[in-house]
């Protein structure tokens, strides 16, 4: 099916894994989620109160990150906590921020009120 020219350029297919990873990263909400997980594992309700977005929408973005192998999930009693599988992702985020000069992180540090068990037991956090 491929002609000669296409075959010669098929080397770009070797980057499919890298491209899939970057594709998973290339979304404002998913980037925001990763920034929030920088200080440790969090439940969906914590992400919900920091991002001000609906839980169904956040869950949808979390599953994209999970499928890309960027997140791991741990269950603790009734709660499900999300964390990054490899902290190396933060060095990518740092590089992107350095390149763009963006400082979106400050917008995420002041939630209205977080009802998650973690924040309720640690009032310093929220
Ligand atoms: Zn919380």
Give the secondary structure arrangement, pairings included.
Layout: H1 4-8, H2 16-25, H3 28-36, E1 42-43, H4 44-51, H5 55-67, E2 71-76, E3 79-84, H6 88-100, H7 117-121
Antiparallel strand pairs: 1-3, 2-3
The structure holds zinc ion.
Write a structural description.
The model has no long low-confidence stretch (mean pLDDT 85). The chain contains 7 helices and 3 strands. The chain has a 3-stranded antiparallel β-sheet. Helix content is 50%, strand content 11%. The protein has one domain (15-121): Winged helix-like DNA-binding domain superfamily/Winged helix DNA-binding domain (Arc Repressor Mutant, subunit A, Orthogonal Bundle). The chain is mainly α. 16% of the residues are buried. The site of zinc ion has 6 residues, from helix 7.
Biggest sheet details: 3 strands, antiparallel
Q: What gap, in angstroms, lies between the N and C termini?
A: 58 Å
Give the ligands present.
zinc ion
Radius of gyration: 18 Å
The total of helices stands at 7
Across the major sheet, the strand order is 1-3-2
Look up the CATH topology: Arc Repressor Mutant, subunit A
Q: Give, in order, the helices and strands.
A: HHHEHHEEHH
CATH top level class name: Mainly Alpha
**Please, what is the CATH homologous superfamily?**
Winged helix-like DNA-binding domain superfamily/Winged helix DNA-binding domain
Number of strand elements: 3
Percent of residues in helices comes to 40-55%
Class based on secondary structure composition and strand pairing: mainly alpha
Multimerization status? single chain
**Mean residue pLDDT:** 85
Strand content: 5-15%
